[in-house]
Amino acid sequence: MKFVDVPDSKRIERDPDNRNVVFSDGKITQDDVEIKKIELLEYKINKDQNLGTYSIITALVDTDQGLIEILYDEGYRGDDALNDSANMLIQNLGLSGLILRSLISLKNKLGKIEE
What we know:
Largest sheet: 6 strands, mixed
Number of strands: 6
Order of helices and strands: EEEEEEHH
Low-confidence stretches: none
Number of helices: 2
Structural class: alpha+beta
Number of domains: 1
Distance between the termini: 17 Å
């Protein structure tokens, strides 16, 4: 089951323009949830002559309890926004924060289904 926790999710109702696998083929367990894979997805929304490309970057986290796609970043971030975001995530220990945020969102979505 896949959940999307992105404001105005209609903006990303298509295949992403780019994707970057941040973590795969490993097993991270957090709060009894196994993380199988983490990808960053880039949706290019607009290109401004002065500001460059406007991108929405989401994190797609694959767990043993389902997939959750959450907003990671958005804005005019340049032509290499996806790689810049992936590098920032990996180099600044942002992975643990992303995992915790994703699991909170996933558990909230699963809780709503159970009600």
